[in-house]
Amino acid sequence: MPASVIDGNKISQEILEEVSQEVASLKGPKPTIAFVRVGEDPASVFYVGKKQKVAAQVGIESKLNLFPKSCTQAELCAAIDVLNADPAVHGILVQAPLPDEMNEQEVFNRVDPRKDVDGFCRDNLGKLCQEDDSGFVACTPAGIVELLKRSDVNTEGAHVVVVGRSLIVGKPAALLMIKKALPGNATVTVCHSRTKDLGAITRQGDIVIAAIGRPGLITGDMIKPGAVVIDVGINRVEDATAKKGYRLVGDVVFEEAAEVASQITPVPGGVGPMTVAMLMSNTVKACKSLQGEQSLAGKL
Ligand code: GUN
Prior knowledge:
This protein is an alpha/beta fold. The protein folds into two domains: about 25-110, Leucine Dehydrogenase, chain A, domain 1 (Rossmann fold), CATH 3.40.50.10860; about 140-270, Rossmann fold (3-Layer(aba) Sandwich). It has helices spanning about 10-25, 40-60, 75-85, 105-110, 120-130, 140-150, 170-180, 200, 255-260, 270-300, and strands at about 5, 30-40, 60-65, 90-95, 160-165, 185-190, 205-210, 230, 235-240, 245-250, 265. The model has no long low-confidence stretch (mean pLDDT about 95).
């Protein structure tokens, strides 16, 4: 295996250590994040639980707001309004996916942009487009940038191929890579489910970001020798030999791609832990900026 493995667990721990120190140095109330979860989707239960655990580890308070799958979008939005108005809440995260009957983007847009630590609302997506750093960047693409930065991957003039066009990963990742600063300044191609001859395009990538949610779609022959491969996919595939009856695999066939790439992220242990670390970082940013606003208002 010529590729070196980018260790997301290790890099996320470094970031969490930095966040922890920042939290400890803050004056005033502890940063607080409110989680909103609808229904009992096992993956959502797991991820929200994990985020709460990590928050506690770095000294961030968290509150869990649970709603039955039968709740209406209006009820959910009313609850978000209450959290928006609560000065003790600095960050709000509505765990996706939401029930099919709801318009997910409308719900994300309801979150006060100053508390939108997920970076999913239109204001924050707009700020990302405008390269306005006062906004929040979605945690997974922000985590990808940190992985590249801390693994000394130079994006200047590189051809980055993003596979996937979701609002949560693909689109913001592409915007970050074309940003007029490093890590950015890349040439970006975005591929998706309708792309013809995907391999012909991914083979041009100096960096391939696979975020399409299809297990093993990217095989070794689709990677250029020496490329950097970032696998965002976390897919459950049945495995009778595994204790839980399934195992997690990425969008990339790791063993094959690792034979040709120079650096590659594993699944699990690559991008996943970075998403959680960046959420903590965003929550501290939200807390600091809201407290700054409050103290300014107090002086006026
Ligand atoms: N579901 C999968 N990833 C995410 C994420 O980053 N944020 C939220 N809110 N839901 C998700």
